[in-house]
């Protein structure tokens, strides 16, 4: 049964959200990646750095046992421009590392408790947290791209979503 959860986490993060973030980065001009409407808002570049930092800390460090070297505030303080190619490279590396972690997780890993950011969380809770967190910020990135460019992201191009089975 745990494999259903892991499969769904893989689909939602690695296949859907990372695809969408890459698509959004491809639709933006370089300067738009680091544009902020105000100091209380984050740029798309900041959100990509933040998602990479969060997934590394929660999944690769907590679940995977790697050292936690995250500097969370730096993800938001960055003003860029970190090149689009570097942001894409960070996503590619993270995707490979998360995929390898998901491949080796077992039921005992999901039931065990971990400390992350001062919280006690089960492996299941960590997977749910990262999945919803990535999805949340992917939605913000998508909204920014549509607002800033006036372009459709085309996530569902060619699919009839009105079909009733």
Q: Which CATH architecture is right?
A: Up-down Bundle
Q: Low-confidence parts lasting 5 or more residues at pLDDT below 50?
A: none
Q: Main sheet?
A: 2 strands, antiparallel
Structural class: mainly alpha
Number of strands: 2
- Give the mean pLDDT: 96
Strand order of the largest sheet: 1-2
Task: Kindly report the name of the CATH homologous superfamily.
Answer: dinb family like domain
Descriptive overview:
With 165 residues, the protein is mainly α. It has one domain: Four Helix Bundle (Hemerythrin (Met), subunit A). It is 66% helix and 5% strand. It contains seven helices and two strands. The chain has helices spanning 2-27, 30-33, 44-63, 72-77, 84-104, 107-111, 123-149; strands at 113-116, 119-122. Strands 1-2 form a two-stranded antiparallel ribbon. A hairpin with a 2-residue loop joins strand 1 (113-116) and strand 2 (119-122). Helix 1 (2-27) packs antiparallel against helix 5 (84-104), helix 1 packs parallel to helix 7 (123-149) and helix 3 packs parallel to helix 5 (84-104). It is globular, with a radius of gyration of 17 Å. The two termini are 26 Å apart.
